[in-house]
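Notebook entry, structure prediction.
Reason for the run: the old model in the group folder had no record of what sequence produced it. Starting over properly, with the input documented here first.
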Amino acid sequence: MGDNKNILASLLVGLLFGLGLTVSGMVNPEKIIGFLDITGNWDPTLLVVMASALLTTFIGYRLVFKRQKPVLADAFQIPTKTVIDRPLVVGAVLFGVGWGMSGFCPGPGISAAAIGGVMPWAFIGAMALGMWSRGYLRA
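New structure, fully documented this time:
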């Protein structure tokens, strides 16, 4: 039964996240590219969304970590890796280049695919190919 609760909670959180991205306009690649175009017609919308997310996260983490354990798990899972290594840097650069070229990152790309159009699906295909090739190259 616990797995079903986790799946349902994950689905609801994902839907809420996708709804937030859609309502804020972050599924529109022109908004993202407009934010990255600091010498042209700059669009600060993404900055407002990021600031709102940071504030929500700042408050949320303080509330959540006052608990002994998560609601749907036995313990908190906190990342322990603190080293900035080559795979992290290469991945960050690839993420940034892909984001700047397409105007999509994974969350908005998937949310935009639910709305329709060819570009989100092309992005999802390229993202899946990148994830597959990472696993293939690692093996």
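Summary: The helical segments are 2-23, 29-36, 45-64, 86-102, 106-115, 118-138.
The old model has been moved to the deprecated folder.
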